[in-house]
Every structure is written in C-alpha cells, then in structure tokens.
Amino acid sequence: MGSEGISTGIVHSDRRLGIEHGGVHKPIHTSVQYGFDKVEDLIGVFQGTTKGGFSYARQGTPTTAALEAQITRLERGVGTVCFATGMGAISAVFFTLLRAGDHLVASQFVFGNTNSLFGTLRDFGIEITTVDATDAAQVAAALRPNTRMVFVETIANPGTQVADMPAIGQLCAERGLLFVVDNTITSPALFRPTDVGAGLVVQSLTKTISGHGHALGGAVTDTGRFDWQNHPNIFAAYRKGDPRQWGLAQVRKKGLRDMGATLSSEHAHHISVGAETLALRVAHTSATALALARYLESHPSVVSVRYPMLESHPQHALSKQLFSAGSWLLSFELADTAACMAFINRLQLAVKATGLGDTRTLVIPVAPTIFWEAGPQVRAAMGIADGLIRLSVGLEDSADLLADFEQALR
Ligand SMILES: *Cc1c(COP(=O)(O)O)cnc(C)c1O
C-alpha cells in the first residue's frame, strides 16, 4: 500500500476507514451532537481514551475525519486537522503555536491575506521578519534566539517564486525550528513538504485539492518530522502520549475547538469528491499552463512570464528538482501596461474573477485587486508590478484556451 499511486489511495481511502451501511462513499454526517450508550464512553471522548469518538461537531465529525485521513495519507503525515478555510488553518497554526515575544521568519512572497495576518500577529506581540526565501542564507541571517518558526509557500502566489525549501528544511532541522510550508498551489500531487523536512503542512483545500471552486476548506498536517519536545509553547495538557501528536492536539483544541473555524460535513464531502480527481486535474492544468506560458513568452506584446517550468524562471532548476509539474498558476506582464484591462476584457473563456484552482480558467489584474489594500510599498517589496496579470488555468481544452489568448492579444 505504501507504494500505491495517489489516485488509487484517494478513491479507496473511505473504504479503508471502515464502510458504513455498505455506502461506497463516506456519508455526510450532519449531527452536531454525538450520543453514547454508556456515559463512560462519553467521558472517554473528553479524556481522549475513547478511540475515534466524537462529541460535538465543532471539533470534528466522521465526515471531516474521513477527509483528514485522506489528506494525511496524501501528505504522508501522522495526522491532519481540517478547517473551514485555508486562512482558518493558517491562523490556527500561528495563534496556537506562537506566543507574544516569539519570532517568526517568513517568506516575503506569500498570499496577500497571509501577509495581512502578519500585521495582526505583530499587534499581538509576535515579532516577524520577512525575507526573500528563495535564498536560504537570508533565512539563516534572520534567525534569532527567540525564533520559533519558519514559514514559506511552495510556489508563491502570484509571483511564482520558489523558496529554497531543501536548504531551509536542513537549516530548521539543525536549529530545532518548526518549518511550516503552505502547499496550496502545488498540493501533494506535485510535491510533499515532508520530503524537505517540513514539520507542518498547511493548505487551502479550496484550491487544488477540492478543485471545483464549490467549497472552502483548509488543513494542517503534521508530517511527524518535528520533535515537539523542542517546542516550548505546548501546554502541559497536550504533553501526553506520543510526542508526534502534541502539536496537532494543541492545534485541534486551541485552534479548532476554541477559535471555531470548523469545516462543515457538507463541505468536507464536496472537497473529498473533488480530491478524487486531483492527480488528473493537476496533470491536465499543468500541461495547459506550460503550453500557455511558452506561447505568452514567445509573444512580442508580453514582457515577462513567470512559470516555474520555463527555463527563464529564476528557480527553474530547483523547481524541476522539487515538483513533478508546474501547477496551474502563472503570471505575466504585457509590454503596454495601459493595454492590460482592454486585453483582459477581450478574453472570452478566461473568467475575470479572483480565486484559484477552479475548473474554469480565472484571470485577474493583481495590483488593483487582491494587492490593492497592501499599498504600493508592499507591492514593490513583493515584486508586484502594476501590470501583473495572474492566471489560474482550468480544465478547458488547451487548444481552446490558447486560441482565446491569441485572439485577445491580436
Ligand atoms: C487561497 C490561499 C490561502 C487561503 O485559503 P482560503 O481557503 O481562501 O482561506 C492560503 N494560502 C495560499 C497560498 C492561497 O492561495
């Protein structure tokens, strides 16, 4: 079973958890309360001695547990906690594992809302240094005695910068630091952060894993690589049993139970169904994205294209080493910034919308929308030019999509 492919593992994971009433798909459990024949079993759920028991749906249901098992298997981890959104998952990691006076080193190339969250964390007394994480030496230089965590994205949205994860992972291992990787854009179909020593993997299930733009969700997976005995912020209540589960126990109790960004069973079901075609979708969209990136790069009206599988990408060699394909995310700039909006309006298939990882191709000018609130200084620091256009490549037939871009650029 250890060597089986991604798709086989996903489509058979429900069955392996124990089938209910012969249902081949995991049922959607909508009950908020979970009752027991004997009160001792209820007590056992609270005290963690009743195996796999449920008590109150804010902390999980059999349906969300099935999705958690699916993601744990995909990431080759030791456990997963799901959340209502990717931001719910990311917030839970920062707010439950960091304390006032701690220091976080993060990539300066991160999702806009994650960057906005850094501002909130600073107000709670957490020190944050953002660095160009494509260069591990910058991460090393930023470390302080109170550094507790290093946070990067695999392929950064929207600039597609690729953090030097093998070197950062090694650095974190040497210093006993928790390395957290946001695997949203790549997903475990293209890359597993455990392979570069990440202790926690966070991701928005809304994007690649769900893949249909019809459900929000997030996940935190423990890879089992970080030794929680080295982390001073684990409360005594969770320093019990297998130390590999300490961190996730705290994320589930303090992050999910207390903060309450709970994934509903309905959305967990949508995400699980979407995940069944993960490998197929990622292969198709990556191939289309590469064809489109090559076409755009060769077009005289385009000044730059950012896609990790292009030879011109600054981290191309590293990307080839780490990722089995380049994902559905690419961005580019037209030579004439003023022509940008008219070009986007001429696109017929690509939907003018924010969001990522949908079945439909989505296109958005970055500076006046998702990075508007950040302001010009932050945009400059994150390498976001005024004319940058972001694409999330969908499941359309490649030839149709290429034809749409050809007519719009004409
Ligand atoms: C979208 C996204 C998130 C946030 O996920 P939501 O499900 O929208 O909350 C986090 N990180 C990255 C890289 C993203 O693209």
TrEMBL record:
Its cofactor is pyridoxal 5'-phosphate. SUPFAM superfamilies: PLP-dependent transferases. Keywords: Pyridoxal phosphate, Transferase. The keyword Disulfide bond does not apply. InterPro entries: Cys/Met-Metab_PyrdxlP-dep_enz, OAc-hSer/O-AcSer_sulfhydrylase, PyrdxlP-dep_Trfase, PyrdxlP-dep_Trfase_major, PyrdxlP-dep_Trfase_small. It holds the Pfam family Cys_Met_Meta_PP. Belongs to the trans-sulfuration enzymes family. PANTHER family: HOMOCYSTEINE/CYSTEINE SYNTHASE, HOMOCYSTEINE_CYSTEINE SYNTHASE. NCBIfam families: PRK05939.1. This is Cystathionine gamma-synthase family protein. It comes from Pseudorhodoferax aquiterrae. The lineage of its organism: Bacteria, Pseudomonadati, Pseudomonadota, Betaproteobacteria, Burkholderiales.
